[in-house]
Design brief:
Strand content: under 5%
Radius of gyration: 24 Å
Number of helices: 7
Helix content: over 70%
Distance between the termini: 75 Å
Number of strands: 0
Length: about 160
């Protein structure tokens, strides 16, 4: 019979496994929160597969690194094949230079996700405060973190301006 142990994390799994004197794989299989709606059942893969292997955590780290490399490859190839071509066509239609299109159209595309997320969050319960916090937090991060990183990366180099 499935039960609810709360959030499906290592701490809760250990508490329930020690309490019932069963292994963590059984807890994951029976817990409602560990089932989720995702396509890939990561808790099940880890606790019922990788965790059972001696030094399985090393295999888990290697698999996570390979997974991230695959995701970055898929994102970059999608951007190269679909977004870059669309941006070039759109800038050609609007008779914009590549530099201007890169500065404006890419910024609009980057900010559109934040805007749509804010609109959807504002229509949910408790969402207006969440959307204001999200939008102002991302704006502060972009306007504060990016210039700081640029300044830190140029610390060793001299920068001159031509007037």
């Amino acid at each position: 019979m499935p039960y609810d142990l709360g959030e499906c994390n290592n701490h809760n799994l250990n508490i329930w496994a020690n309490y019932f004197h069963i292994d963590r794989c059984t807890v994951v299989q029976e817990n409602i929160n560990c089932k989720g709606e995702s396509l890939i059942k990561f808790p099940f893969i880890y606790y019922c597969g990788i965790d059972k292997i001696k030094y399985g955590w090393i295999l888990g780290i290697i698999l996570a690194i390979l997974f991230f490399i695959l995701i970055f490859y898929l994102i970059s190839s999608t951007a190269e094949h679909w977004l870059a071509g669309s941006l070039a066509k759109l800038s050609e239609l609007l008779k914009m230079s590549e530099s201007l299109a890169g500065v404006t159209l890419v910024a609009i595309g980057n900010g559109a996700l934040d805007l749509l997320t804010g609109i959807v969050a504002a229509n949910s319960d408790g969402g207006p405060m969440l959307s204001v916090g999200s939008l102002s937090g991302s704006g502060l991060a972009v306007s504060g973190l990016i210039p700081a990183l640029i300044v830190l990366s140029l610390k060793e180099k001299s920068v001159s301006m031509n007037r």
